[in-house]
Amino acid sequence: MKKLVIGIASQQAIRARALAISRGDHQPRPNEPKIWFTSMRLLAEVLSDDNRALLRVIREQKPASLSQLAEFTGRAPSNLSRTLKTMERYGLVEMRRTLRNVQPVATASEFVIRAAQQTYESSCFPSQQTIKLPQKVPAKKGGNVGNCPCRICP
Fold first, then answer.
1. Domain extents for the chain?
2. Exposed (0-12), middle (13-18) or buried (19+): which is 117, by Cβ within 10 Å?
3. CA distances in angstroms from 53 to 56, 59, 88, 126, 139, listed in the order given
4. CATH numeric code, 3-106
5. Are 146 and 138 in contact (CB under 8 A)?
6. pLDDT per residue over 72-113, tens digit each?
7. Could you tell me whether strands 110-114 and 102-106 are parallel, antiparallel, or unpaired per DSSP bridges?
8. Burial class (CB in 10 A: 0-12, 13-18, 19+), 23
9. pTM for the full model?
10. How does strand 3-8 pair with strand 110-114?
């Protein structure tokens, strides 16, 4: 499974970047974000705890259809359908259509979030996701060593 780089920027900045790419003024590098959100709030809604758990079930159980995914998760098929459509729009899942079924497939197992120019990686968060955070983070009392704001790192 691959690592998916997610960027957070204003709508204006996202548009300007897209126009620069289309004009040939900017060549995206492989490590640049492929998916963009306009706010942390929107990102948090799409990658909520429930939705990340859903992605994990899809990745590990490999359901053959939405009905089977509903059985695995205990969620209503209509709810799953709406959630998966949103996740598909952002490129987090791929919906493979066959003659009779639609099979959800998770496109990534890790997420890197870039919300600032200078970032560093911290792999200490649950479910082994790599999170990108600003480099200069004020020191917090208790257990915070180096630049990691999570208070979990040794």
1. 3-106
2. exposed
3. 5, 10, 16, 12, 31
4. 1.10.10.10
5. no
6. 999 999 999 999 999 999 999 999 998 889 999 999 888 899
7. unpaired
8. exposed
9. 0.68
10. parallel
